[in-house]
Please model this.
Amino acid sequence: MSIKEWVNKLKILDPEDVKVLGARIDTIDIEVNGVLYTNVRLKRPFPYTHPECLILYDSNDEEVGILRDYRKLDKESKNLVERVLEVVYFMPRVKRILSINPRGGVYEWVVDTDKGLIKFKTWRSCARLLSNGKVIIKDVDGNVYCVENIFKLNSRSQALLSIFI
Amino acid sequence: MRAIDTDTDDSDIIYYPSPIELSKVLRDDFSGYLESDEEVIVLAKSDLTVNERGISYGEEHLALTNKRVLVIRDSAITKEFRLTDVSSASLRDYLSTIVLTLNVRDEVVSVMTLSRTRKKQFEKVVTLINDITLHKIPYNMLKKHLFERVNLQKEKVESNRSVLVKLFKFVKPLWYMLLVTSLLSVATTTMNLLPPYLMKVLIDEVLIPRSNLGKLLTIILALLGVNLSLTILGVLRNYALLKLNQRLAFRLRAKIYEHIQLLSLSFYDKFSRGAIISRIVDDVNRVLYFLTQGVSMIVLDLAMIILVGIIMFSMSPWLSSIALLPVPVSLIGTAIYRKVMPKYYHRLWRKWSRVISTLSESLSAVILIKTLGKEHAIVRRFKESLDEFVSSNIEVFKNEQKFWPFIGLSFTISNLLIWWLGGLQVLTGALTLGSLTAFVSYMWSFYGPINDLANHLRLVQQVTVAGERIFEVLSTKPESADKPDARDLKIVGGVELKNVWFTYDGIHYALKDVSFKIEPGEHVGIVGPSGSGKTTLTKLLLKLYEPQRGNILIDGVDVRDIKSSSLKRQVAIVMQNPILLNVSIAENITMGKENATLEEIMAAAKAARAHDFIMKLPEAYDTKVGVYGGRLSGGERQRIAIAAALLKDPKILILDEPTSSLDALTERDVTKAVDNLTKNRTTIIIAHRLSTLRNVDKIIVLDKGTVIEQGSHEQLIRTDGLYKKLFEAQFADFLEERKKRVLLRG
Model:
């Protein structure tokens, strides 16, 4: 079978056929072409590089389909999806790095984020620069923080972050 | 007594030697021994001789002509064999000796003895004898091939001589930066000449007469100005040097890296990973230091020597002549140094390469070492290599001390002489105190660069060795480079091997006269014991190596006539232990097709049954897989590799034992993935486990590099051959177990 045939087998959902009826903390209820699905979980196959792409799983963990770009949903549905994604993919956005100090083999960061001032610890290898300028920072416990665009940080923050990239 | 040099070099094997080269080994005119149409193809030197008193170090030569094999000892021919009587040649490998044997009229004759040092050279000789006698390659064809090799060898000798010239070619595009640094160096030199002159004026016109306050202030301000200028010039020079260094570093490293990516696998057989890293890191650093700092310092030294020399001679020719006395000592010492030291540096760097190799290999095999509990053994090995490096470093230091302290002492003696003779002149009034002080100051400004120049010439020595090592890599030509008329081919999927012979080392053939045909879309299994040549076959199909004889045809076109890029685009391989790059899963999958869409990536992963486990990872397709894919299990890596192959949509697919290292459950998953991958494609499955071949159309059985059976499973089981034996061996346990169960039930 060629790759084209495999692509044709994917369940790609048309945003116009999808209507989000409601949202809980981490799940949504949807209607797809008149079929109701409750407690649907959202997963991003490419959480950093293509966060707009979602795969929807029903309560039995069966794939409902792939939403290539959830932002194309109607406004109300989009808002509900984003509310759940905020929880499922919680990732404070770093606006400014105040300090990074080495302490006993780890680094203590103090950063200003969209969720407020945060202090966390990382190992030496903790940051990942993506091709779009986005930087993903993981702390020692696995919590993820993100810099939307390294080049939009102030020069001091850029200088501090560049040590880890 | 002179120690025996067990080293070997290119002069130990000479292709198509000249009459002068031949006259060095044979007392009489060599041409008198040759028949009409006979010419010497190769002259090789051994280093051991065996006579009635036993084995000892000594030279013997072997001359291979297009008609005979001649052995020459003490300038006389001692053995002679006609090639028409010889059916093959081989080397017998002993602990530290090698014996060259010829099969002469069905009798094996020992011809020459050599140390292992000469093994590589004599492997080439054996290959040549076998090409003529065993493989019956026409002499004209062989000669053409050899001439190409001889030309390459000459090119290499020439390139070694002009290493420095070649290195400067790298700087050529950045000539303006080198010019700026050199001009800044000269400006610094000129500035440095002023303080002694100002000191002279200060002593003679201010301090001794004890007057002229205004002049004192002027001189102090001038000294301040000079020092400020020197600081500014120093900063500018360092900045220019840094810029030049970084630009050059980029050019050199990128060039080597790009080049080694294009080289064939045989290059990687020759150089260890550590040796390559050492060339890219250490040797490039040495070259960079020389081309930036070194050249600038040499320019500075030369400028200083010339300018200060002129000033000194204008001040006092007599004292200047005395000052020149240690210069010849320094020059002669340096010349001897340059002759003696390279071998110690070569040895030192070889030892360092070994340290890096041991380190790199032990890190790659960390799991193996830990599971075998060999941590102490590997630490011991590392310490040994480190110990050798330390000894070699001490050896270099000891030899260095034979030169530099003596040269330094000669300068000190000359300085004392100047003070003695100059002091007498001051006492008699022939010279002012200020002039003597300035002269001594200039003299050190003169000696300094001479001493430094000698030291900096060491850099030339070191950089020549480092440059040679770099060009050794850069001058290796890509063996499988495309022919100029190679073309793109839209592959349908037919594969045919016609009388293919292949050897890695030039002596042992991994494939011997292999022929078979695979129709487009056919699924073929290749089986055989370990070392039977199965994996070699896949490397040839991918054009990673080229066969020495025979043809590999894809849809009837010789692979040599197909562009490598075209072939690699349409032929995919899934290895037994695929190694992934330390990038995201998505990026590893798109190795099969750049610019693949998200849908294609997910579809390929679904077909490879990888999608579900990927989606269970928190970062899903954006998960970084770790070094060599170490964060994933063997089965997961295997399925990512299958997804990459699927995305490539290959016309020919090679599966090299894809499920052999997996557990039963994972094997089932991967087998299903493989089934998805192989549908409607020409598929070659290399298999150890015969169960993998349940759906193939044809099975080819290889043994010791030769096809011994081919046919369907049923056909091969009916014949009492190797396949049946392998099948029975693999299923004996299974059948035994089944029999027992049936009996128990009964």
